[in-house]
Amino acid sequence: MEKRGYHHGNLRQALIEAALRLIEKNGPTGFSLSEAAKDAGVTPAAVYRHFAGREDLIAECARQGYQIFADLMEHAWNGGAPSALAAFGATGRAYLAFARRFPGHYVAMFESGISPNRSPDLAAAAGRAEQVILNATEALTRHIPEARRPPPRMVAAHIRAMSHGVVELYARAPGGAAPYTPEDLLESGMGIYLRGLGLLPPDD
C-alpha cells in the first residue's frame, strides 16, 4: 500500500480512526497495531511514535468516545428543560443514538476492558459523561423527601445498566429484533422503574 503523506498533527488521528474501524469490524482484541497502521496507510513504526501499544490506542478511542458521549448527553439533558422528567427521557434516547452512531467508540469505552482510570484524561472524560446522568437523576429525585429518596448514584447506575442492556440486546446485536423498537423498550423500562420509585404516577 502506498504510504500517505500525513502531517505530524493528523497522523495520530488517522491511526485512531483506523482503530475505530477495526474495533467496529473485529472487536477490541481482533486487530493488531500493524493492521491499524496498514488501514491508516502508514508504516507500523509510525504507530509507536504516538502509542506505546494497542491498549493505549484503544484507550484514546475510548477517551474521544466519552467526550462525544458527554456532549450528546449534555445536549439531551439541556439543563433539565422543559422538565426534569422529559429531559431525563431524552438522555436515554441519546444513549441509544450514541451507540448506533459511534459503535467503535462505544465498544472501546464499554467492551474493551480498558479501565476509565487508566489515565487522568480518560478518567476526566468518563467522569464528565457520568456526571450528566447523575445530575439528571438528582434533579429528577429532588422532590422526594430525603428520608425516602433513593441514592442518586444507585438510580443512575440502574438506568445506565438498563440502557446498556437495551443497546446490547436490541440496538447493536445481530438478530436482536424485537416486537418493539429499542427506544420503546428503554422508555417503557424506565417508566416501570421510575414508577416503582414513586417518580411517576401509577397507571389508571
TrEMBL record:
Residues 32-51 bind DNA. Residues 9-69 form the HTH tetR-type domain. The keyword Repressor does not apply. GO terms for molecular function: DNA-binding transcription factor activity; transcription cis-regulatory region binding. Pfam families: TetR_C_33, TetR_N. Keywords: DNA-binding, Transcription, Transcription regulation. InterPro entries: Homeodomain-like_sf, HTH-type_TetR-like_transc_reg, HTH_TetR, MT1864/Rv1816-like_C, Tet_transcr_reg_TetR-rel_C_sf. PROSITE patterns: HTH_TETR_2. SUPFAM superfamilies: Homeodomain-like, Tetracyclin repressor-like, C-terminal domain. PANTHER family: HTH-TYPE TRANSCRIPTIONAL REGULATOR RUTR, TETR-FAMILY REGULATORY PROTEIN. This is TetR/AcrR family transcriptional regulator. It comes from Paenirhodobacter populi.
